Structures are given as structure tokens and as C-alpha cells.
């Protein structure tokens, strides 16, 4: 058999072909519909540079105030994340195959996790700002709910994936469900649980910056005010401070992950 | 129950009535049985794995269950603690009608039955001592049973004694996944001892071990159950283990007990031909 006798292309069936063309058409339409045109980008570049130009040198006058806001932002992320993880764990147990006490409970728990995960944290923040008023408390609650959705899903998966043998051995002894989870499932899942928790914290820190934009407290409020007042030099300080915080948290989290796993 | 096998004579030299010899005294009545199984049936879909199983075990006796792959030995052993639910029949163990226990009585019953699996089933990330302490979960619960650091003083002492009994006291604080296969299986035995069982079931504990470690583990199970007066039911595919480490051998084939005889009367040759399914035995 020579290579010439092997067709270069496989025959596609008509349905696949039509679907493929439709997807391509949709993609092209998407480009035109979002108004992203070449000349607009080109015209935007000088404006972008002029903003960046006006950002320098960063204005350090409000630095103490900014650092304080940054600390509040981090604390908001930390508290929201810890609360989220604490609630995520039992919900994950109820949602995990083989650990859930009843299929109905499992479906309710999974539905809850899916709801918390699919609604963006910004939307939760808007809701909580209305419910509990402006300020970090609303941010904490938004982060908490978002983290229940994120960590709940990964906690449940981690606990489903552990080796079943040790569980079976304890069940054969007549151990309780709680005993089984705490002495066999959780110890085996610890590396995943820790990794998920650290990712949650990183995500929470990044997310908490944005939440201020809708009034849920933290440095986001400062950033919005600076931009609204065209005070680009102060905005630069804030952006750099956020950048440093996020990088620090990611580095610390990586170091911890390496140590524990 | 013991009389279910009538095909013994071809196998065994001097036994005509299947009476069990135990510590020199004859035990003919089933009332002394710590375990009796009758008419046990179990099918998986169309597969009738256990058709009509009868046998009994006496206090302190070591039984070996043998049979070809897939003949239902594991199914039988698991049925005894209802890890598999039998379709019909009766199991009486330690004065309880096992198949009619409710879930809390079942837990209580299971806590008195030790189970050693082919796999050691230890939690690798935890210490050896913690794994042994998990054995108290049959009779106790709560945070103090999860980890040796929280455990009651008397549990830690008992666990150390169990580890000493399997010769691994010096490994107590090592992680379980740092042990060899044979050592892990011995820790699993220590965990089982921690349970203070009256009946011990062992499903091919030697299967994944090298010959030396396998022999150690089987010998340990046999001598421990001897010393503590425990009833032992074990499965092994190794003919020499089956004969050496049991008092009685029960042969399973086609879903029924084919023979039931004293180990010391069993010729290795006969056992081998039983495994091969040769006609002379049936
Ligand atoms: N949960 C199950 N579902 C369906 N079939 C099963 C199940 N458990 C066991 N079986 C079937 O029942 C039969 C007996 O299995 P069992 O494990 O009891 O055999 P065994 O005598 O222990 O074999 P081996 O010597 O290989 O360990 C096998 O054919 C197996 O496929
Ligand atoms: Mg088996």
C-alpha cells in the first residue's frame, strides 16, 4: 500500500459539514457584532498610551489610605473564602456519590452547588449590597457563596475519587458514616482538598478587587473613584498595589501547596 | 450441618462421619457452633453462584474455604457479614440470626467479626498506629477514633500491643504507605485484632504477597486465632497454606459444599486434583 492510495481527507457527512459552516458563520458574525474593527483598535492605541502616560509617575500621596483598603480587601477575601470552605465541605459530602445519605439529598446539594457556581460573584455582590448594604460585609458574603460553588464541586470530586478499599474495610467493621469519612475519605483526599482551598483563596483575592466596583467594599471602591475623577496617577498606585498583592498571594499559595502535598 | 457432604470417603482416609476433632475432644452437636450456615443461596442475575451451602464452624476452629476461581468463595465470606446480601438461607453466628438483623444490630455484629482482605486497605497517608486505632470504630465512635494523636490512652496501649503481636511495634509512627506488602497486611491484621473480634474472616490475605511474606501472614493469622481462641475462616489458593494453616477444609464447587474434612487427613495431591475439577472427587 502506497501513500497515494490513502486519501488525504476523510469524507465528511452532510450534517457535520452544515454544522461546521454554521459555526464558522456564527464566529464571523460575532466578530462584526462586537464592533471590534481594525481601525477602532488602531485609533484606540494612542488613547491607551495617553492614559498610561498620564498614569506616570504614580501618585503616592494617598498610599496609606490605599494600603489600608488593600488590607481590608485581603481580609474580605480571606474571611469570605474561609467561610465558603467551611460551608462547602459538608455540602460536598452530601453531594458526593457513595457518601450522600440519600439520592434526594444528593440532588439538592448538587443543585445548590451548581447554582452558587454558575451565577457570577459580581451578581451575588449586587444582591448582597441590596440585602446588607454597601461595604465589605456584602463582599464577604458574595465571596463566600461563590467559593461554596467552586470548592463544593471540587471537594465532592476529590472525595469520590479516593480509593474505596479502606472505606469498605471500615464499613465491614461496623464503623459509622462520619467515622468512615473522617478517618478514611478525608485523609486520602487531603492533597486535593488543600489544593482546592488554596486556589479558592487566590480566586477570592482576585475577585475581591472587582467587588468594590459595585460597592461591596475594599480597594475596588478606591479604584472606581480614582477613575471617575480622572485621577490616573492615584489609579496607577492602586493597580500596582493590587498587582503586588495578587502576586504575593499566588507565591505564598504555591509555596504552601508544595509543602503540604 | 456438617453432614452435608457425603462424598468424603473417596477423599479422606479415615473419616466416615464428618465430626470435627478439636483439641482432642469430639464435638458432634451443632449447638456448640459459633457459626452455622444453611441453605444459603445467592445469584447475580442469571449466575447462580451459591445454590445450597451448608456448613458450621466451632469456637476456636480454623476453616479453609477452597474452590476454583469464581466458584463463590468470596461471595460466601462476604455474605457472612452481609457485605453481600444472600437471596435465601440462614446464617447463625455468635447467637444471632444474621440475615434478620436490623441495621444497628448489624453494625454491632460486624464489629465482632474481623475481616482481612486480599488488599490491606490501609489509609496510606496516615501512620501505622492511626490505622490500627481505626479498628476501635466498631465499638466506639467520635473524633478520638480518627487519629492516634487524639486517641484514648488505653486505645493507644492496646494498639501498640496489637502491633507488637504482628511484630511491627517499631513502625508505629511510620506512614502506612512506606511499608512493604507483607508488612501492610500485618498492620491490617493488627487493626483487625484491635477490633477484638470473635470470628475472623480472611479472603486470600496471601494472594498479593511473595511466598515468604504470604506464609508469614497466613501463619500469623492461624497462630493468633489459635492463641486467642478465635474462629477463623480463610481462603487461600495455595495448597500448602490451606492444609497447614487450617483445622478443617471446606471445598466449594457448583454452588454447594463438595467436601468438608479435617485438614490433617487431606492429601495435597487430592486438593490439587480438586482444584483441577477431576471427576474422582465428585
Ligand atoms: N457484585 C457482583 N455482581 C455480579 N457478579 C458478581 C458479583 N460478585 C461476584 N460475582 C460473580 O460471582 C461469581 C463468584 O465470585 P466470587 O468472587 O465469589 O468467586 P471466588 O470464588 O472468590 O473467586 P476467586 O477465586 O477468583 O476469588 C463470579 O462469577 C463473579 O463474576
Ligand atoms: Mg475471591
Notable features of this structure?
heterodimer; A: 261 residues; mainly alpha; MetI-like fold; B: 282 residues; alpha/beta; 6-stranded mixed sheet; 4-stranded antiparallel sheet; 12 strands; globular; disordered N terminus; binds adenosine-5'-triphosphate; binds magnesium ion
Describe this structure in words.
The complex is a heterodimer of chains A (261) and B (282). Chain A is an all-alpha fold and 261 residues long. Chain A has ten helices and no strands. The radius of gyration of chain A is 25 Å and the shape is extended. Chain B has 282 residues and is an alpha/beta fold. In chain B, 29% of the residues lie in helices and 25% in strands. Chain B has helices at residues 73-79, 103-111, 128-133, 153-165, 181-194, 211-228, 239-244, 268-275, and strands spanning 20-22, 25-27, 33-44, 47-58, 62-66, 88-93, 96-97, 113-116, 199-203, 231-235, 248-253, 256-262. Residues 1-30 of chain B have low confidence and may be disordered. Classes of the chains: A mainly alpha (261), B alpha/beta (282). At the A-B interface, helix 7 and helix 8 of A face helix 2 of B. The structure holds adenosine-5'-triphosphate and magnesium ion (MG).
Question: What's the topology here?
Answer:
The complex is a heterodimer of chains A (261) and B (282).
Chain A: H1 14-33, H2 38-55, H3 63-95, H4 103-118, H5 121-132, H6 136-161, H7 165-173, H8 177-211, H9 219-228, H10 232-260
Chain B: E1 20-22, E2 25-27, E3 33-44, E4 47-58, E5 62-66, H1 73-79, E6 88-93, E7 96-97, H2 103-111, E8 113-116, H3 128-133, H4 153-165, H5 181-194, E9 199-203, H6 211-228, E10 231-235, H7 239-244, E11 248-253, E12 256-262, H8 268-275
Parallel strand pairs in B: 5-10, 5-11, 8-9, 9-10
Antiparallel strand pairs in B: 1-2, 3-4, 3-6, 6-7, 11-12
Helix pairs in contact in B: 4-5, 5-6
Bound molecules: adenosine-5'-triphosphate and magnesium ion.
Amino acid at each position: 500500500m502506497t501513500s497515494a492510495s490513502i486519501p488525504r481527507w476523510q469524507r465528511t457527512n452532510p450534517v457535520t459539514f452544515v454544522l461546521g459552516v454554521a459555526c464558522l458563520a456564527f464566529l464571523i458574525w460575532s466578530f462584526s457584532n462586537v464592533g471590534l474593527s481594525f481601525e477602532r483598535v488602531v485609533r484606540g492605541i494612542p488613547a491607551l498610551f495617553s492614559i498610561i502616560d498620564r498614569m506616570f509617575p504614580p501618585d503616592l500621596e494617598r498610599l496609606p489610605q490605599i494600603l489600608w483598603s488593600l488590607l481590608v480587601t485581603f481580609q474580605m477575601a480571606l474571611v469570605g473564602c474561609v467561610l465558603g470552605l467551611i460551608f462547602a465541605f459538608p455540602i460536598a459530602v452530601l453531594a458526593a456519590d457513595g457518601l450522600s445519605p440519600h439520592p434526594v439529598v444528593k440532588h439538592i446539594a448538587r443543585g445548590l452547588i451548581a447554582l452558587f457556581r454558575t451565577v457570577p460573584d459580581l451578581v451575588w455582590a449586587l444582591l448582597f449590597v441590596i440585602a446588607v448594604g454597601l461595604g465589605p460585609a456584602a463582599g464577604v458574603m458574595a465571596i463566600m457563596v461563590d467559593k461554596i460553588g467552586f470548592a463544593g464541586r471540587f471537594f465532592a470530586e476529590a472525595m469520590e475519587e479516593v480509593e474505596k478499599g479502606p472505606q469498605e474495610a471500615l464499613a465491614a467493621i461496623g464503623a459509622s458514616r462520619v467515622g468512615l469519612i473522617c478517618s478514611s475519605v478525608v485523609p486520602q483526599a487531603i492533597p486535593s482538598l488543600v489544593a482546592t482551598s488554596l486556589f479558592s483563596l487566590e480566586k477570592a483575592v482576585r475577585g475581591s478587587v472587582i467587588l468594590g466596583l459595585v460597592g461591596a467594599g475594599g480597594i475596588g471602591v478606591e479604584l472606581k473613584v480614582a477613575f471617575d475623577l480622572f485621577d490616573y496617577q492615584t489609579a496607577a498606585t492602586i493597580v500596582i498595589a493590587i498587582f503586588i498583592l495578587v502576586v504575593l498571594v499566588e507565591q505564598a499559595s504555591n509555596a504552601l501547596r508544595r509543602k503540604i502535598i | 450441618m456438617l453432614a452435608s457432604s457425603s462424598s468424603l470417603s473417596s477423599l479422606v482416609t479415615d473419616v466416615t462421619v464428618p465430626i470435627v476433632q478439636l483439641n482432642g475432644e469430639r464435638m458432634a452437636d451443632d449447638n456448640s457452633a459459633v457459626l452455622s450456615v444453611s441453605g444459603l443461596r445467592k445469584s447475580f442475575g442469571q449466575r447462580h453462584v451459591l445454590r445450597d451451602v451448608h456448613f458450621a464452624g466451632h469456637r476456636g476452629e480454623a476453616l479453609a474455604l477452597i474452590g476454583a476461581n469464581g466458584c463463590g468463595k468470596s461471595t460466601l465470606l462476604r455474605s457472612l457479614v452481609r457485605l453481600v446480601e444472600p437471596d435465601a438461607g440462614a446464617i447463625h453466628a455468635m447467637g444471632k440470626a444474621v440475615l434478620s438483623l436490623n441495621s444497628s444490630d448489624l453494625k454491632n455484629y460486624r464489629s465482632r467479626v474481623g475481616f482481612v482482605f486480599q488488599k490491606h486497605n490501609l489509609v496510606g497517608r496516615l501512620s501505622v498506629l492511626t490505622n490500627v486505632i481505626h479498628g476501635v470504630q466498631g465499638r466506639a465512635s467520635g473524633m478520638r477514633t480518627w487519629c492516634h494523636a487524639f486517641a484514648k490512652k488505653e486505645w493507644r496501649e492496646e494498639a501498640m500491643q496489637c502491633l507488637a503481636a504482628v511484630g511491627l511495634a517499631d513502625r508505629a509512627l511510620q506512614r502506612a504507605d512506606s511499608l512493604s506488602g507483607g508488612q501492610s497486611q500485618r498492620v491490617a491484621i493488627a487493626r483487625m485484632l484491635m477490633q477484638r473480634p470473635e470470628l475472623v474472616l480472611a479472603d486470600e490475605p496471601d494472594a498479593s504477597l511473595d511466598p515468604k511474606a504470604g506464609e508469614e501472614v497466613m501463619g500469623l493469622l492461624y497462630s493468633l486465632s489459635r492463641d486467642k481462641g478465635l474462629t477463623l475462616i480463610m481462603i487461600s489458593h495455595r495448597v500448602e497454606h490451606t492444609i497447614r494453616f487450617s483445622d478443617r477444609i471446606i471445598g466449594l464447587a457448583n454452588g454447594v459444599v463438595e467436601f468438608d474434612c479435617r485438614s490433617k487427613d487431606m492429601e495435597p495431591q487430592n486438593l490439587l486434583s480438586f482444584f483441577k475439577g477431576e471427576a474422582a472427587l465428585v
